[in-house]
Amino acid sequence: MGLLKLKGRKxxxxxxxxxxxxxxxxxxxxxxxxxxxxxxxxRFAVNSGAPASRFLRSLTRYSxxxxxxxxxxxxxxxxxxxxxxxxxxxxTPVAPRQGQVLKVRSGDEAKQARLDGRTITLFAQTDGLSLxxxxxxxxxxxxxxxxxxxxxxxxxxxxxxxxxxxxHYPKQNIEIAPSIxxxxxxxxxxxxVNAFRSEVTPKRYWTEPLDIPVHGCLxxxxxxxxxxxxxxxxxxxxxxxxxxxxxxxxxxIAAGVVKIVEPYNLRGGTVAIDHGQGLESIYLHMSKxxxxxxxxxxxxxxxxxxxxxxxxxxxxxxxxxxxxxVAVSPLQWVHAVPCPPRKPPVKTKxxxxxxx
Length: 356
Description:
The chain is of the alpha+beta class. The chain contains 5 helices and 24 strands. A hairpin with an 8-residue loop joins strand 4 (89-92) and strand 5. Helix 1 crosses helix 3 (64-86). The longest helix has 23 residues, at 64-86.
């Protein structure tokens, strides 16, 4: 610790002492002297290692008055930044539906966010704010929930109401051969995928917009209640299916680290990518792989090829986006359209005997 002496006008000296000292790390115990009633001398006890103090001490060639002015500018900038940070507690979209992601943003104070018992980490971004991906599960009941912003000690520092709307997901029946319907996961398949979903890594690789892995239309939507051969499966479709010919290249939706490359029984040829800070993707039913575990891929890189392995009725791509371990709608991130309904074959009447 040491002393830093600054000199300036009385009113601004009072401002510097009373408002700035609490804002600038390393400054404390300001003492003000006003020998002539107009000017003032301010003495701060400072931590010599504090960046602000080091900066002002380095300006020894300038007068105390000039150092005072620079200190005031530094104080005001710090104050404005603190006020902006304190006022930043936002989320988008403001009217989320089941199966969507809330992009939660805050200043430095909030380290986590919580909604309906689910807590996520907020990661520092290059714009000075923090960002977290709060999933709204498909099975979340429509209604109003509290979005809580938490400090590093877990204390609630801000609360916002969030109204979740019904997405009105439809039902879908899939006609599937009994031998395919009866397929079971490979040993360790479910555990490996669950472990992948539960991991949240701090480095962000992804940027928006995300890429679409293939350009086929949608044969099955996200969130639909699934039936197999007219019987309920008790589950919903956790991704989207896109029509694509066998052998079509599949592209990574964003940059990231490849975590799974496996020929599973149930999911078929599977590649899973961690994009960082809670965003992940997984691609199923591949015929062939183009990456290996541990590879760092870029947005649009080829990671494999369309197939019909695993529980599949024909060549297509099933893929899923996870936000902090929860399957969410890819259509919030990319644009794709449903396939047009197939026209039934035209029945022709048999031609009668020729009159010739």
